[in-house]
Design a protein that fits this description.
Oligomer: single chain
Largest sheet: 2 strands, parallel
Helix content: 40-55%
Shape: elongated
Strand order of the largest sheet: 1-2
Structural class: mainly alpha
CATH class of the largest domain: Alpha Beta
Low-confidence stretches: none
Distance between the termini: 49 Å
Order of helices and strands: HHEHEHH
CATH topology of the largest domain: Rossmann fold
Amino acid sequence: MDARSVSGIINRGGTILKTARCERIKTDEGIGKAADILKANKIDDLIVIGGDGSFRGASEIYKASGIPAIGVPATIDNDVAGTETTIGFDTAVNTALFAIDRIRDTATFHERVFVVEVMGRKRGFLALAVGFAEGAEFILIPEIRFDI
């Protein structure tokens, strides 16, 4: 990446690298390969920007390679222990609020009930923040079982 390839990205959410979950990093073989690549490229330290899965992978790579890793919490799930607010959480909340404000107009004028689902994987932080801010009548979260 150079200055030209990253110009104009400051206002864009998500990742411009088009990264995705890597199933191989969950295996001993994948961890070993990552450690070998870091060592071969003389990487002294690893800075991981991500969430729970990214940090677990970084921890395993550290164990295999001895290369120190630092984690920067960045997940809309806001589920990194010891972190009040992760990078991406506020943006996700505000993006959902923007969309729900428009949905609320339609629901009100047509006297309808709308069900809104937000992301968050196995944690309800995003649903709670959005639901409280919008004055939702019900907020269902993964941590509490509910039988519709």
